[in-house]
Amino acid sequence: MEEAELIAKAQQGDKDAYIELIRIHQQTVEKFAFQCGVHSNDLADVSQEVFVKLYRFLHQFKQDRFTTWLYKITLNATRDYYRKEQRQKEKEGRLNKQQQTIFPSAEDDVLLFEEDRLLHSAIQVLDEKYRHPLILFYFHELKYEEIAEVLNISLSTVKVRLLRAKEQLKASLIQEGSVENG
Amino acid sequence: MDDKQFDKHMVLLKKSYERMESQLDPQRVLQQIEVEDETRESLESINMVRKPSAKWQKSAVWIASIASVLLVGILISSYMFPPSAFVQSDEEKIESTYEDWLSSLQKKYQEKREKTRIELNIPEEYFKKLSFVESAEYKYNDKAKNKKIVLNKLAYDPKYLTQLEQEILDSLHTPRELIERIETYENPMSFGESRYFFSIYYHPMKEVLQYYTNELSQYNKVLSQKKKDYPKELNQLIATAKKQYFELSYDGQNYSFRTNPIFMKDAPVSIDRLHPDVLGYFKYLATGSLFNGEDLRFSAEESARILKLYERTLVNDLSNSYLDLQLRNLKKEFENGWLVLLKGIDDKIRYSPEHIKLLNDTANGKYGESMRLTAQFILEEFKREGTSKTIDKLTRQDIGIELSYLSNEVYIEIYDGSTGLQIDTRWIIQTEGLYNAYTSSKDDTILDSLNPMNVVSLFLYAHGKGDQETAKRLLSQEVDLSKMVQFEGMEHFTILYATDASQTTIKAGVKPESIHLIGQHLTFQLGTVTTGNGEKRCIITAISE
């Protein structure tokens, strides 16, 4: 069944069609959430929230903009997740100031190579206004226009932010010595 | 690292991401949806039993409102009490809270409305037609009084009543109150906050201003007389307007009121909290058009100084894509203003010494950044051929293009949200022009007009060229140039950015391939010295790597 047909059926309440839609897009959502900074342990929960929200708003979607909406909803879900994480960290910090924060190493299970992990970490350090266009451009192959729509920014801002993201990432990689300075 | 290497790394990481195994079980999504639906339906049926006649209670959204407040209580107590009795008492409680709130709001609303009307001294028949008053009226009648909508909203946001009340009463603020509320913002305000502030200030201010200016028209004959001869009613009008930070203004043809809460003598202190990049809007409101017909109303220098203020606002706002009416008007004014200044106005006949001085000052950055290169080209052509083709062909669009270039390519956001200045080929050519102008004339007044960014730029250019004499002219005596790393050319640097609003610390970011030579960045501390002719000149007081 074509995706457009699945969307139409899901919009009419066909739950099997919706499950099929989830199957088509779940990897994209999980991948994007992970790239945006969601820990791999929490990916299933965040993705579940995304698809529940998507279902609630399904009747509003126009088919040609389905993927854009999916990215937007995922982005919002990762922001909510990040805010919760921050609150939790602050709470933990207050409870035990002496305790050092230990970052989960679950990424090791997802990214097998050291170089990938370093690059992934360097991307996480970027400000989100640079990180998001970079992720959408390099890992999701979205066009400038599509990135502008997902992030609700102008086309020229997309270009400038991508350029800056690239420069900052290069500088950070060279500084970390994670890649050769060519 | 070149682009090819970078892209290769990204492709490899992309492949690794694609190997990720999906963790989500789609059935769990459906289960969560079904559980949510069942909870919703059971709550709906409880409410249906309780009051079947009220249609709005069937709304799932309303049910969610009860659920959000009482969900836990309902789930527990449903095993212990008859559900209808329990929910009904809470519904009554919510309704009673709403009625109390509405009654209190009604009193506050009427009081605030009348207080505003009296402060503005506008008769009711005009006052009620002001759109911000109409807007408050709409919010009060159609939002606050609509019980159904309010209860629905309350479901999602327990603070809704407080927020709605605040929104309604805030709609009735006078322009003075809006200006004075700046002290409730953070100090200093970000550009976004300042821009938002301007947008909420602009429309009520404009309407009240228009009313006072209309009132002024009946005094046209006496306005040209001495102030002591003004009738009592006119003095009262001027005093009432002044309380709103409006000033009486004459543009050579007509009298009107202009708002000037920033630059007037009695401006509130808290106004300094506004981000400097929105001041162009306030300056434009205070100044009005630079033109009287085709002539400039002010001297060329004064006009250029005003345009410099507009440039900061336009550069920042254009990059944020706020192409609203005020921005379009400001942009048009900027383009027309520079067109006349660069082409030469009446009192500065083209290529006269005054016109050439204005072009020189423009090229050296005294009046902002956008027109520097254009002024430099004109001067170079004039020196070479005694005339300039650039001037002949110059149009408003050319000025708009320079402004867009500055906005999109030169001023760029850096990671902490502030703005940096990209050192690209154009910027280097501009700095070269400045360097040549100084070294060929040794005219220290050129250095007097430089802003902190241009001082650092010129220093980097001179030092990169090995010209210690010029570089030292930009440094205080305490700075030991011999200890500074030597580099060739300005091309090693990628960006200049200030770490504080007053630009006392500027960092020059180094290109990745030059980090091993210079470090990640050079940090410049800046201060001022008073020169022999009493001018304050910006100089570098310390450099660290």
Summarize the largest interface: chains and residue counts. Answer: A-B, 54 and 43 residues
Secondary-structure-based class of chain B equals alpha+beta
Low-confidence stretches of chain A: 97-106, 178-182
Distance between the termini of chain B: 22 Å
> Pairing-aware structural class of the strands and helices of chain A?
mainly alpha
Report the β-strand fraction of chain A as a percent range. Answer: under 5%
State the domain count of chain B. Answer: 4
Main sheet overview of chain A: none
Amino-to-carboxy terminus distance of chain A: 48 Å
Radius of gyration of chain B: 32 Å
Biggest sheet details of chain B: 6 strands, antiparallel
Question: Which whole number gives the mean pLDDT of chain B?
Answer: 84
List the defining traits of the structure above.
A: 182 residues; mainly alpha; Rna Polymerase Sigma Factor, Chain: A; disordered C terminus; B: 545 residues; two-stranded antiparallel sheet; 59% helix
How does this structure look, described?
The complex is a heterodimer of chains A (182) and B (545). Chain A has 182 residues and is mainly alpha-helical. Chain A has helices at 3-11, 15-35, 43-56, 66-95, 107-110, 114-125, 128-138, 144-151, 155-176. Chain B has 545 residues and is of the alpha+beta class. Chain B folds into 4 domains: 33-172, no CATH class; 188-288, no CATH class; 290-304 and 311-413, no CATH class; 431-545, no CATH class. Helix content of chain B is 59%, strand content 10%. Chain B contains 24 helices and 10 strands. Chain B has a 6-stranded antiparallel sheet. In chain B, strands 1-2 form a two-stranded antiparallel sheet. Chain B is flat and about 80 Å long. At the A-B interface, helix 2, helix 3, helix 6, helix 7 and helix 9 of A face helix 1 and helix 2 of B.
Summarize the structure.
With 182 residues, chain A is mainly α. Chain A contains nine helices and no strands.
